[in-house]
Amino acid sequence: MQYEQPRSFWSAFGTGGYPDEPPLLEELGINFQHIQAKSLTVLNPFKKVSDTIMDDADLAGPLLFIFLFGIFLMLSGKVHFGYIYGVGVLGVVSIYLILNLMSETGLDWSRTASVLGYCLLPLVILSGFSVVLNLGGYIGLVLSVISIFWCTYSSSGMFTTVLHLNDQRFLIGYPVGLFYTCFALMTVF
Predict the structure, then answer these.
(1) Distance spanning both ends of the chain, measured CA to CA
(2) Residue 91 in 3-state DSSP?
(3) For residues 85 and 63, what is the distance between their CA atoms, to the nearest angstrom?
(4) 91-113: per-residue pLDDT in tens?
(5) Where is the Yip1 domain (predicted)?
(6) Which helix (DSSP H) or strand (DSSP E) does residue 131 occupy?
(7) What is the pTM of this model?
(8) Alpha carbon distances (Å) from 65 to 16, 35, 82
(9) Whole-angstrom Cα distance, residue 24 to residue 21?
(10) Environment class of 46 (CB within 10 Å of its CB; exposed 0-12, middle 13-18, buried 19+)
(11) Per-residue pLDDT tens over the stretch 6-19
(12) Quick one: angle between helices 81-102 and 60-75, nearest 10?
């Protein structure tokens, strides 16, 4: 006969837990392999984007990147958490509306936020550079323009792959580029 743990109120607070209970990260929907795969897709924008890259619209990676972006800006002397939140929410809603007007299949807001958040990674790296470099000169201008184009190219590639809008990449890239330009302006100024 197998020993069975008693199921009581206090079992939830111990290390044993309940039988057949999933791990906490799995229950919260945080999958580090998906975060790594999507981050590597953003870091290598010239690789063909898989059709299944956005099957799950996790927001753990984008929240981590936005948090790091804010922390790096704070370390460089700029406390812009409210601006990051405001521009992020307004940008996700605007781009969600634009993409759903452009495509027949449509896209939900969480996938839009996921793509925009993951493709923020080059600007997070730029904000990391702003901790040790002054981005007010030519080096900052060049790095900012490269980061904006990198973010725009990656996100427009993901959006065109997911929505099957291959001929409209530049049309998608324009509002997305404006979105990332706002974040670059926060980093430089």
Answers:
(1) 69
(2) helix
(3) 11
(4) 999 999 999 999 988 889 999 99
(5) 42-185
(6) helix 121-132
(7) 0.86
(8) 33, 11, 15
(9) 9
(10) exposed
(11) 566 666 666 666 67
(12) 140
